[in-house]
Amino acid sequence: MTKKIHVIPHSHWDREWYFTTSRSKVYLMKDLQDVLETLEKQPEMRFMLDAQASLLDDYLAWRPQDGDRISNLVQKGQLVIGPWYTQTDQMVISAESIVRNLMYGIRRCSEFGPVMNVGYVPDSFGQAGNMPQIYRSFGMDSTVFWRGVCDDMVSHTDFEWEGDDGSRVLAAQIPFGYYIGGNIPESEPESSRFWEQECLKKMGHGATDNVYFPNGFDQAPVRKNLVELIEQRNAADPENTYVISTVEDYLRDVKAAAPDLEKVKGELLMAKHSRIHKSIFSSRSDLKAENTAVQNYVANVLEPLLVISASLGNEYPKKTVEYIWKLLFENAAHDSIGSCIADTVNEDVHTRNKQAMDTALALAELHGRLIATSVAGDKNRLSWTLINPLPQKRKGVRIFTTYVPSDSFGIVNEKGEAVPYTILSMRDLTEYVLNQTIVLNPSDQPEKPEKVYEAVIALKYEVPALGYAQYQIADENTAALLVESDVLENEFYRISVNKNGSLDILEKQSGRLYKNQAVLEENGDDGDSFNYSPPRQDMVIRSSASQADVRIESSPLVSRAIIHLDMKVPTDLEKRSRGIADTVMPVTMTV
Question: Is the pLDDT score of 444 beyond 90?
């Protein structure tokens, strides 16, 4: 049966892996220049830039003179770009990050010309169940990927994928990876054997007579004589048709054939034919925790706060927010967030997380001040403005660090009613703070307190949805004192701390007692940066084997236990195999 082989030139561009982003950018200068020159000389040639707009930004930052060349080739359909900003992971990062990645990627690529309207993810470690819904929300009805599906699920590489919410897209799997057609031999009989084995046999399991055959590899340069090789192949195999193609052209031909597609549903994590690398979901958990913290802060705190600020007449800093998201997109790339990378690259990931969070915190602080000054009541009294970025009313106890002019004071709400609070800690910083004061207008003498204390306060609050509440200092002391206690207790729980730092938790409603909770366990890892492997001779150490230093303190507003442990653990795998715990790992747990 005659087949149409879509040879799709591309380069899968890991912006960092065992090499740094800096090294990748240097290589990109040479490789993309070669791509542009090849496309300009050969109008029949096509090339896909791995669906990443970030590569355009990386390249043009150092070669801005090529912007018009890129636009010209994109508009001719020779250089295929978009829709992503970076080749994102799907399983570790947030759905909001994925949506923004597509949004910013499409927006940037649209500045050059047509954008590939396909969810192309050649190397993400599994496919999230909400991706069909996300693709459909961007007007995409198809996706191309490698990992997550096997022949136990479908017999063809083209199938219908239904997401968690019922959204459906046409999916085309690259069952042997995006690099299978990367090394086309140029001499016979090797060339014919290659096409027969790698292309027709391995890749020829689509639902139609169309075959998807990617020509590229990691950081691979463009195959400059590919047009000639395809002409030679058409002459050598007249029964089939070989064309230099694109992802969209392949999918268009599949749809035109109107095949009866098999169906798969939900999250795709089958690793029979292609590794999912599930162990990396927990590698460098510190970096993953940083990423989660920044994502949540930007989406759920910063941006709503900026909307509130804009509603009061302040400018929304669009470009600064875009800068933060682009840092997060760089870290969302499948290798970067997977932390299956060199230590020097992990340092870069941490730095970008830090830059993103530092910028977000500074923006939030500035606009928090703008909101507070816009709604200030009595400007002669110290005030605290609580801003609620969530779409529902919030109330409870908020703990924060502040500066106060006295060690005895009260707090009132906007109605002048006393508000209970507890001072968790306080220190006198009078000399330091007053000597650091900068007077912006020397002719205007601001009120200077005699004393300045740094205080950590627990405040009972109530704030409307997407709104703010302002509390002011008062003369009459309304503080609820913090005293030493034996247990943590409220209307729901009674928690006692054992000598080894474990917890006994009584759930009052059911009367059930959970004993020896919060025991930490430490063990070894003899794997690599992709995969966890248990040591041949492991040694498991639990915090319950240590003696704990415990402090419990309570007030009507807050109770907390601070538990410190010095766990003894092995320095390395060799000592672990001999059962030698010779290193102190300090742990402090606050409940």
Answer: no
